[in-house]
């Protein structure tokens, strides 16, 4: 993941200076971090309301889902003040995926699978860090290259289309956990 990101070191140094100078000023990252965790949990609550509504056939769970969603959107605006393109959705999914990986890691830890747990925690933190990198504008997304519609990434030259690559995708997902 790190090799695909273009992080501007000057922006990082500037950010560190701002953070140190502000103390309890405009940058209160501890509160924003707490808020981001609350947002993760709201995303999880939305998912649970969805599945409960679908499993029970009771539409009132979907109303509760919408209430949680509106709260999540309102709170996410406190962290993501400016965004372009799909950064809003990317941010939501980065938080959601990070939360799920933490949960998978916690379950693995409870089963005594410390190595698996550490791998999941590392991936969760990488996604969480990417969320902050994008939203604090520490990651320069201007140099990210667009890939073709049928490509999985810039190294994919087969161009078989997504259905033709289903096996490759599954193999990739399984193999990425072994690295």
Give the helix/strand layout.
Blueprint: H1 9-22, H2 29-56, H3 60-79, H4 87-110, H5 114-135, H6 166-176
Helix pairs in contact: 2-3, 2-4, 4-5
Structural class assignment = mainly alpha
Tally of individual helices: 6
Number of domains: 1
Helix content: 55-70%
Unreliable stretches (pLDDT < 50, length at least 5) are 162-179
Q: Span between N and C termini?
A: 12 Å
In angstroms, what is the radius of gyration? 19 Å
Number of strands: 0
Shape: globular
| Major β-sheet profile | none
Explained architecture:
The protein is mainly alpha-helical and 179 residues long. The chain has one domain (30-138, 156-176). Helix content is 66%, strand content 0%. It has helices at 9-22, 29-56, 60-79, 87-110, 114-135, 166-176. It is globular. 13% of the residues are buried. The model is unreliable at 162-179 (pLDDT under 50).
């Amino acid at each position: 993941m790190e090799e695909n990101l273009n992080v501007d070191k000057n922006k990082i140094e500037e950010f560190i200076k701002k953070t140190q100078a502000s103390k309890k000023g405009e940058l209160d990252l501890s509160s924003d971090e707490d808020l981001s965790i609350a947002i993760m949990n709201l995303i999880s609550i939305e998912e649970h309301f969805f599945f409960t509504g679908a499993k029970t056939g009771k539409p009132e769970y979907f109303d509760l889902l919408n209430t949680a969603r509106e709260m999540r959107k309102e709170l996410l605006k406190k962290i993501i003040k400016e965004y372009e393109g799909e950064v809003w959705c990317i941010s939501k999914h980065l938080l959601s995926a990070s939360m799920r990986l933490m949960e998978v890691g916690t379950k693995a830890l409870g089963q005594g699978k410390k190595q698996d747990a550490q791998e999941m925690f590392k991936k969760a933190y990488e996604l969480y860090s990417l969320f902050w990198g994008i939203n604090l504008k520490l990651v320069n997304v201007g140099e990210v290259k667009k890939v073709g519609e049928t490509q999985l990434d810039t190294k994919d030259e087969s161009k078989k289309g997504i259905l033709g690559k289903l096996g490759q995708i599954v193999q990739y997902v399984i193999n990425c956990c072994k690295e």
